[in-house]
Here is the input.
Amino acid sequence: MDWLLWLLDFILHVDAHLRAFVTDHGAWVYALLFAIVFVETGVVVMPFLPGDSLLFVAGALCGLALMSLPATLVLLLAAAVLGDQVNCAIGRRVGPRVFRWEQSRWFNRRAFDQAHAFYEKYGGITLILARFMPFLRTFVPFVAGVAQMSRTKFTLYNAAGGFLWVFGLVGAGFLFGNLPWVQDNLSKIIWAMIFVPGLIVLYGAWKARGAAAT
Here is the structure.
């Protein structure tokens, strides 16, 4: 349980922890950031790692000249894109094994075909929007792989979504992260980054469930 408490403290106070890491370990912060973003986007069982707040704080540290903005942007974009590619590849490999027997209780051919059709038609915008949604950004690439979304289309939208996510949030942190009002309310902003997208997802799921029931 100690590690869970530490992880929760890291997520809620990522600004203090990241600043301390830069002070103590210097350039190793880039390896840490790369690892966190790659694991959060690439390992489907790790959706709880910080994402949006981490990028925002990293941008704020770049604004203080504690980190290099170009290096941060390039490394985090690479981590985000590679993470999703790995996640999708795992979905492609795991999906057919889970659904090996078409008559098994685990496989519903109609549902699989519908999922594949959905990702071919709407998967692009889904991948981009999911980048800004905690938990969804971890699961959507995996489901895209299970649904056998075409590799070319997935790669294109993966790169576009990763670019908007990384450059948007790191850029916002760089421009606004060190303003006095933002610094005074940073903990509230981090909470908002965690809960507001989550509430939107829950509301969307509730609406979809209600529509399916009618």
Notes: The chain has ten helices and no strands. Residues 69-98 form the longest helix (30 residues). The chain has one domain: 2-213. Residues 2-213 form one domain.
